[in-house]
Amino acid sequence: MNSLWTETARIPGRNPLPGNRRTEVVVIGAGMAGILTAFYLQRHHIHVVVLEADRIGSGQTGYTSAKITSQHNLIYGKLVKTVGEETARLYGKANQLAVEEYGKLIRRYGIQCHYEEKDAYLYSVQESEKLLKEAECARRLGLPATFERETKLPFPVFGAVRFSGQAQFHPLEFLRDISSGLTVYERTRVLKVQGHEVITNRGVVKADKVVFATHYPFINVPGFYFTKMYQEKSYVMEIGPVPSIDGMYLGVDSKSYSFRNAGDKLLLGYGSHRTGSIPKENPYIAMEQTAKHLYPDVEVLGKWSAQDCMTLDGIPYIGTYSVLKPDWYVATGFGKWGMSTSMAAAKILSMQILGKRTPYDEVFTPRRHHIRASAKTLVSHSLKSVKGLSGGVLKGAVNCPHLGCRLVWNRYDKRWECPCHGSSFEINGKISSNPAQQSIPFID
């Protein structure tokens, strides 16, 4: 399925890696996080090479809702309780600075990417208490939060948390311009990494530092990211024409929707489930019914799905890949907030690679251990993984080439999905989402 972004932006193609190369830093993955990391390193006169298995922005960046916001659902009250107020404050500050940095870059370089400053809202049609608490908590942490009783949504709400000074844009138009001066090799699949050597299907790149910006890390050991991350799937429908709702909205109730305009179109988001745990309800039918109810004359213009990497404590992993690999770096686990977190990750990693510390290093370090914040999710993730691995030994199972879990057929997206770690494959077995690195044989 194509998205609004992939249908309306054309990024000029780049050549594959022409053989063995030597560089200071190699970035694996040409999505938003990888390109921005390379961009900031190059601004500091570091020689960088970016390797991409497909095309620039062809992964999850092309299927995002493209909201640039530090409002990450009802996260701040949770963070204060589980990891402490100072960590929550730094998390919010890193993401709010990321929001502001996009605006600075876009203005400085004159990037034409349909950038618009928009307020972000969390809304509920059932209650207001938890929204009041979240607004108070976020404001105490220094974020631009207020509680509102009314919105421009086409239905009444009990209340909303409003973050002012947020933004939305066309992510691939932004990537097209910001990547124009970078050395990017497309259609160059990384097969493995051994120390300072990145081995691809086109040659070997030797580098002092290696950055994994591949959505989900594909190197299992060291790091063991497959034990502390899973993936969730959500769905988007493009409808139009629709009047402006003057903001970006996310519902916090069960089975609620997200809304954001794109010109006279509306992106309607719905559904969130662990990849490989297929819901009984068809999310696209549910979205179309809601769209017709709210806007009777609307036309469905497109639909697609996105996958997001979820960490056990809700905080991304940004920093050194493992204590055993001090020259490897990683940016992953962005949840549903990849745009702001990609920018935060790029700023943090570029400073670390330059040998400088930031106030946010300990907040996002992959070496952290937040037992209180992680315990419940860890048990659930472990049980799902064990079930998937057990199913992989059954006769006739279609197995994931990552760790052998039994794949599940998503009848709504017409894809095979791994319920353990979220790899997905087209109907013909072609890989469409990692951590798996290989396709599966053709399936009848």
From TrEMBL:
Q: Which UniProt keywords apply?
A: 2Fe-2S, Iron, Iron-sulfur, Metal-binding
Q: Which InterPro entries match?
A: FAD-dep_OxRdtase, FAD/NAD-bd_sf, Rieske_2Fe-2S, Rieske_2Fe-2S_sf
Which Pfam families does UniProt cross-reference here?
Answer: DAO (PF01266), Rieske (PF00355)
Annotated Rieske domain ranges read: 400-444
Q: Which PANTHER family match?
A: RIESKE 2FE-2S IRON-SULFUR PROTEIN YHFW-RELATED (PTHR13847:SF274), SARCOSINE DEHYDROGENASE-RELATED (PTHR13847)
Q: What is this protein called?
A: FAD-dependent oxidoreductase
Gene source species: Clostridium boliviensis
